[in-house]
Amino acid sequence: MDQATDEPHAVRPTIAARSTALSRLRLRIAGIVPFLGPAFIAGVAYMDPGNFATNIEAGSGYGYTLLWVVLMSNLMAMLIQTLSAKLGIATGRNLAELCREQFPRPVTFSLWVLMELAAMATDLAEFIGAALGLRLLFGMSMWLAAIVAAVATFLILGIERFGFRRLELVIAAMVGAVTGCYVIETILDRPSLPEVLHGTFVPQIPDAQAALLACGILGATVMPHAIFLHSSLMQSRLATRDPHKLRRLFRFEQIDIFVAMTIAGLVNAAMLVMAAATFHASGHGDIASIEQAHETLRPLLGSAASVVFAISLLASGLSSTVVGTMAGQTIMQGFIHRRIPIWVRRLVTLAPSFVVILVGADPTRSLVISQVVLSFALPFAILPLILFTRRRDLMGDLVNRRATTAAAVVVGTVIIGLNVFLLWQLLVGG
After folding, report:
1. Of 39, 48, 140, which is closest to residue 81 (Cα–Cα)?
2. Nearest residue to 85 (alpha-carbon basis) of 206, 260, 218, 216
3. What are the structural domains, with CATH classification, of the chain?
4. DSSP secondary structure string, 368-379?
5. In contact, 182 and 189? CB cutoff 8 Å
6. pTM
7. Is residue 242 scored above 50 in pLDDT?
């Protein structure tokens, strides 16, 4: 028997459209639209400010050579996010709630603390990215930019009062802004299509530094908070326990994931292509920071290109910050059944970012440090996800097939291995 959700009246037409689409025998394009959204929110993690520095350094230093890594990482991300969404659909609970139910209390508490640290590290990278975008765009100080970014984040989060669907649309619009900016950048760059295709489909690692950058792109692709959040977002869709409708809902979400993650992958590829076509081709292979990229774009492509770049960074930072706050709420509520006002959580998680900005720490270096924390936390999100989705008593008809579990184990092992390698390189290799 289906259950009505507690969504506001303003979004009830969307709920009705979902119910109708799930009841139809044939899949229609119009019926897919009401289900689009969760993957776009989770996909924000794949085009956040943390991706800017890595892709720019890879493109400026090695041209189009590492584009195949972007493709591989995107395919891996699709699988992991598909498992997360399926978990929420099949069980009606998110990953954090299942960890609390299935694991001993000490393990649950340890996981909660670790994921809270990961959420704070995520907020650090994304909020600094938004503030940096404002500074590059308007020339304001980082301190003032941080205050403006904080206010903007509160305003965006406040949209949820008028219905979660509207917040989804606002985040999707910001994703569209990032995408549009890089479409413009790609047109201005005029990249070499044969070289783009060769770099995308012919794997190659020129040297040890390229291997490290490949690990950075691959290992930092799947974010812990995106895994927890996606399973939670599926709880807000149509609540049903009908096996046929659950399978149909999962089919709709697979389409959502494919579209959203394809866009995220193209944006990441465009970041690298921009750096390759602009910096590498002009002999500026030493570009390794976001600020350097912004300053170098102006003389090479004109002021319009640098403005578009700053706008994309700002939109990426703001959308990622909002999504990071949502993920933090999911983690706290799921692990310990505690929910605090979202503005309080926003203030608490902003505190480390303001401290970093106040002491004048290097923004790009701060992004790198945040990735170290996320690298350490990632295995503790992927392993429970695989364990739960392979259990028929939890998943029912949506349980993983053996091939799916095997693929997930391979992907999880690769991602975890690369993150461990990257962590070792950052802490030991200097």
Report:
1. 39
2. 260
3. 35-429 (1.20.1740.10)
4. HHHHHHHHHHTH
5. no
6. 0.84
7. yes
